Amino acid sequence: MRAYHRGVPVRFTLNGEGRTIEPASGESLLDALRERCGIASIKDGCQPQGQCGCCLALVDGRPLVTCAFEAERAEGRDVLTLEGLSPREREVASRAFAAAGGVQCGFCIPGVAIRAKHLLDRRPDPSRDEIARAIDGHLCRCTGYVHILEAVELMAKAWRGGELPVPVADGGVGKPLVRYGAVGQALGERPFVADMQRPGLLHGALVLSAHARARVLSIDTTKAAELPGVRAVVTAADVPGERWYGLLQDDWPGFVAEGEEVRCVGDVLAAVAAEDARTAREAAARVAVEYQPLPPLLDPEAALAPGAPRVNPKHPNLLSRSLIRSGDAARALAASAHVVSGTWRTQRIEHLFLEPEAALAESLPDGRLALYTQGQGVFDDRRQVARFLDVPEEQVRVELVPSGGAFGGKEDMSVQAQTALLARVTGRPVKLVLSREESVCMHPKRHPIRLDYTVGCDDAGRLTAVVARMIGDSGAYASVGGKVLERAAGHACGPYRVGAVDVEALAVYTNNPPCGAMRGFGVPQAAFAIEGCLDLLAKKVGLDGWEIRSRNVVAVGDAVTTGQLLEKSVGIRKTLDAVKDVYYEARRAGKAVGIACGLKNSGIGNGVAEWGKCRLVVEADGTVSLYNGYTEMGQGLMTVLVQFAVEVTGLRAALFHPKVDSTFALGCGQTTGSRATLFGGRAVTSASAKLRADLDTGLTLADLVGRIYAADEVVDDTTALGADVPKIKTHTSYGFATQVVILDAVGRVERVVAAHDVGRIVNPVLCRGQIEGSVHMGLGYALTEELPCENGMPVTSSLREIGVLRARDMPKTEVILVEEPEPEGPFGAKGVGEIGLVPTAAAVAGALEAFDGVRRTTLPMKDSPAARAMSVGRIRRPRGDWH
Ligand code: FES
Ligand code: FES
Q1: pLDDT in tens, 563-605
Q2: φ, ψ of residue 135 in degrees (nearest 5)
Q3: Which ligand has an atom closest to residue 33 CA?
Q4: pLDDT for the residue 635
Q5: How many CB atoms lie within 10 A of CB 750?
Q6: Among the atoms of ligand 1, which is closest to the Cα of residue 67?
Q7: Considering only 166-175, 560-569, 604-613, which range has the smallest mean pLDDT?
Q8: 347: pLDDT confidence band, cut at 50, 70 and 90?
Q9: At what angle do helices 87-100 and 109-122 cross, to 10 degrees?
Q10: Residue to mutate, 56, 109, 351, ligand 2, most ligand atoms under 8 Å from C-beta
Q11: Which ligand neighbours the alpha carbon of 51 most closely?
Q12: Quick one: average pLDDT of 473-497?
């Protein structure tokens, strides 16, 4: 550590032992504990906001968010972290969270676990409400809190002297096998990138643009480089290879160069490596950038106007145009008994995964560069970083480190290239971790989309035509924005039979933060509009919400929006039937009720060849390494892949060790489109069958040491949107869902019932967890979440203002799992990662209209009583968003 030391020692007790540290002026207790004392269970999710709870410790017996507490104030205090709990307490906590399925990405869990200890020491038998109130200071983006509450209840039983919770240690398809690695994650023992240490490690920091649009006149790094402890300052001039990268278009520069324009506030101008993180950040602040500010283009319609300045030099402002036409929609509308039309608007929202982006890069003894990331496609990271450094891909070894959540927001490159360059330039390991504020500025968001719909039906309520025009703000870079709007178009009619379709969806560049993949990928936006139209038509015809949907949902033999005829695994009717009693009982009870359906593609499709790849390697210690090309980001992929392997081989789950790295060429692209279980599972099943065949000859694993069982499964039979082909098959599979939202007497969300067709339940606990977490995200989308921008700059990075729901905000959520096996999926399974939030906002809108007669068409519905009852989502700064 460098010159920040004040020389004032701070003495305190840490987990029962006396410690003396010399923190820098203003250093937080969080940083001091992590960096000076080696405490890894406390995490940095939002420093210095003090709003996520990930950094919680007990100080003098009281819960304290250590990121908002100066280390020097620890003098004489007693600090307890999870590392200091008794062995039994640690075992109880870790087993309870693992057994209850309370861990998804796991980033938030250690903080919740020590909060639970504090609660249970004082109140050994808390009610569920008391638990929810106790953990209210903790944000979980993954779970919807349901299984976290159950975990604390399990903990409580053991705390009172009951039996230790027992996670399910083995099981194939259909069994509630404990999440792979959950026990260690609950205690914060499985390192995220930010927890990784290396001898001689340097720390990186970035210089981000202060403007949404400006010409960069000069970048002066002199003062930064002069700071003691700084080892490198790099800019565009230092990039040896191709500076521009991207998932689908190389339109995103790793650094913006002098003379070029910055296009959004997340643009990178320089990067610094220093002996410690504080020095790196101070040096970054000393990089002097001279700008010539230019008026930003913030409105996608203005960006399409003739003469509008071009946002991105690599592509015109119209990023993509997706068209779907079948039948004569104009004529069908003219002949319809009823027609409704309107404009629906959805907002930009932030993924708010709890773990901000981070990467660590280091040179290996053989000269290669090792890159550790939590990206959603580490092979894509490798491809882009190799080009950036101008080295062959084989010279970059990538490894997936546990991811603290992603939801689509870690598909694009964030800090990988800059970290790799700093490691190359300095010859030392470099770790670069974004702050929450930087993270909010940098990664792509969920698209704001304006959706103009006109929909007709006959006098019995059967849909005749859908005409939809969508325009989405894709921000400064392509990311996968064109595909998001393509997916919105392809789901424009929802899970309904429609005679004639006329859909156009545009993705447009602006100087707002980029928008790209986020759970649902354009489909929640389309669902909000088409389901609203269904409700409006139901009124005109004189039907209720369940009945009009019942008259229109697709069945085998029907076509979806893209023209694909459904041939199998269409569970929408089952999901509708599953909620029928709940819907009508609530109405009879005089409740305000909303209902909405949804479908979501499983697999990218649209003519893209997709892969599942697996290698099973029998190791000398008798275990089997299970390599695959898709990413674990909290959704439970590694666990379900093990379950497929267990089901096929008959071996114990504990023998399998899932791995994602570049040992084998297993690149499958991004973990996106609800496809990893579908395609990754097929590959694991196939490789496992080969291992099983050898075991069936009487050989044992000991006999098979060194054998590699390979499976590369390609799926290349989908067709592009609008392709002129005899048989349209835009997607391998679809998931289906119906959700019911019930309000209480004052208009608060009281209950959500979510019925989902998942094909085949591979793991009931993980499956429910995915849907509960999605419903949580869907309720936030409906009511409280937004990320407005002022002049292209997000007006807030405050977790509470961004509006993700807290435990106390979550209503009772019941999940009904329906099985309609998918013949193209492993054991009948299909993806469930995204569909859980597709119908939610529309169902909330329907319930609100039933409550107060107001049909809301703009998200989030903050004017509603349901939103006003939430504890989050109040933005205290001015708003200036494009819509
Ligand atoms: S890091 Fe301290 S509360 Fe979020
Ligand atoms: S498990 Fe809570 S944030 Fe991921």
Answers
A1: 999 999 999 999 999 999 999 999 999 999 999 999 998 888 8
A2: -95, 15
A3: 1
A4: 85
A5: 18
A6: 2
A7: 604-613
A8: very high
A9: 120
A10: 109
A11: 1
A12: 97
Q: Which atom of ligand 1 is nearest to the CA of 50?
A: 3
- Ligand 1: residue whose CA is nearest its atom 3: 50
Structural Rg of the chain based on CA atoms: 26
Ligand found nearest the CA of 194: 1
Ligand 2, CB within 6 Å, residue ranges: 103-109, 140-143, 354, 405, 634
The C-alpha atoms of residue 469 and residue 449 are separated, in whole angstroms, by: 10
Q: Which residues pair with 261 in a beta bridge?
A: 215
First to last CA, the chain: 48
Among the listed residues 553, 575, 580, 557, the one whose alpha carbon sits nearest the alpha carbon of residue 493: 553
Rounded CA separation 859/874 (Å) = 14
Q: Position of tokens 């990754």? A: 680
Residue 3 confidence (pLDDT): 41
Pocket test for ligand 2, best of 52, 354, 355, 410 (most atoms within 8 A of CB): 354
For residue 117, what is the enclosing H or E element?
Answer: helix 109-122
Q: Which atom of ligand 2 is nearest to the CA of 106?
A: 1
> Per-residue pLDDT for 2 more than 80?
no
| 743-799 per-position pLDDT tens digit | 999 999 999 999 999 999 999 999 999 999 999 999 999 999 999 999 999 999 999
**Average pLDDT of span 431-438:** 97
Cis before 48 (ω within 30): yes
DSSP per-residue codes, 469-520:
EEEEEEETS-TTHHHHHHHHHHTTTTTB--SEEEEEEEEEE-SSPPB---TT
52 lines ligand 1 (CB under 6 A): yes
**Unique residue bearing structure tokens 């389901």:** 531
User: What is the residue-averaged pLDDT of the chain?
Assistant: 95
Q: CA–CA separation, 651 vs 50, rounded Å? A: 45
Per residue in 201-244, pLDDT (tens digit) is: 999 999 999 999 999 999 999 999 999 999 999 999 999 999 99
Which residue CA neighbors atom 4 of ligand 2 most closely? 105
Q: Which helix (H) or strand (E) holds 409?
A: none
**Given pLDDT bands bounded at 50, 70 and 90, which one contains residue 700?**
very high
**CA 161 to centroid of ligand 2, rounded, Å:** 28
Question: Which ligand is located closest to the Cα atom of residue 69?
Answer: 1
